[in-house]
């Protein structure tokens, strides 16, 4: 959906609903950066989902110094595809996120993992790498 279509057809309804409640989170799997001009008008937005398809650098610039949480959801491929964890790729991805979110409130949340190929250690190592890079 184009930013203009979102502004005209979606935003007014989201705004009407969100104004009735307290703080809220926005986004899921879509890239939110194209609609940021509209989304940024939510006065009670507290968290925004930064999916693998989102322009992290742009969103970091927009959220820097604000009270809106940069809610990063890395791709599930790191732990859900293949039998070997590509530690270098995980580190590079998380470093990119940490750099993009510098000066922002950062939260990392792994979602949509359907299999870990019976390897709990791969998940433990994945979390360990994220903690190391975010420290």
Question: TL;DR of this structure?
Answer:
The protein has 135 residues and is an alpha/beta fold.
Describe what you observe in this structure.
The radius of gyration is 16 Å and the shape is elongated. The termini are far apart. By secondary structure, it is of the alpha/beta class. The protein has helices at residues 3-18, 36-39, 56-63, 77-80, 87-100, 120-134, and strands spanning 24-26, 45-50, 69-72, 105-108. The model has no long low-confidence stretch (mean pLDDT 94). The protein has a four-stranded parallel beta sheet with strand order 1-2-3-4, with helices on one face.
From the alpha carbons, calculate the radius of gyration and give it in angstroms.
16 Å
Question: Structural class, please?
Answer: alpha/beta
Instruction: State the shape.
Output: elongated
Helix content: 40-55%
Order of helices and strands: HEHEHEHHEH
Biggest β-sheet strands, sense, barrel: 4 strands, parallel
The largest beta-sheet arranges its strands as 1-2-3-4
User: Number of domains in the coordinates?
Assistant: 1
The tally of beta strands, per DSSP, is: 4
Uncertain ranges:
none
Number of helices: 6
Distance between the termini: 37 Å
Average pLDDT reading: 94
**Which percent band covers the strand fraction?**
5-15%
What is the secondary structure topology, with strand pairs?
Blueprint: H1 3-18, E1 24-26, H2 36-39, E2 45-50, H3 56-63, E3 69-72, H4 77-80, H5 87-100, E4 105-108, H6 120-134
Parallel strand pairs: 1-2, 2-3, 3-4
Helix pairs in contact: 3-5, 5-6
């Amino acid at each position: 959906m184009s930013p203009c279509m979102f502004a005209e057809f979606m935003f007014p309804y989201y705004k009407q609903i969100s104004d009735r409640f307290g703080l809220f989170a926005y986004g899921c799997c879509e890239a939110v950066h194209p609609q940021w001009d509209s989304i940024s008008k939510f006065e009670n937005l507290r968290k925004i989902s930064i999916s693998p398809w989102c322009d992290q650098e742009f969103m970091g610039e927009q959220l820097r110094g604000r009270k809106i949480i940069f809610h990063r959801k890395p791709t599930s491929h790191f732990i859900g595809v293949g039998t070997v964890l590509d530690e270098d790729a995980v580190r590079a991805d998380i470093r990119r996120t940490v750099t993009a979110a510098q000066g922002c409130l950062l939260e990392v949340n792994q979602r949509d993992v359907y299999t870990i190929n019976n390897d709990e250690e791969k998940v433990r190592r994945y979390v360990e790498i994220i903690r190391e890079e975010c420290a």
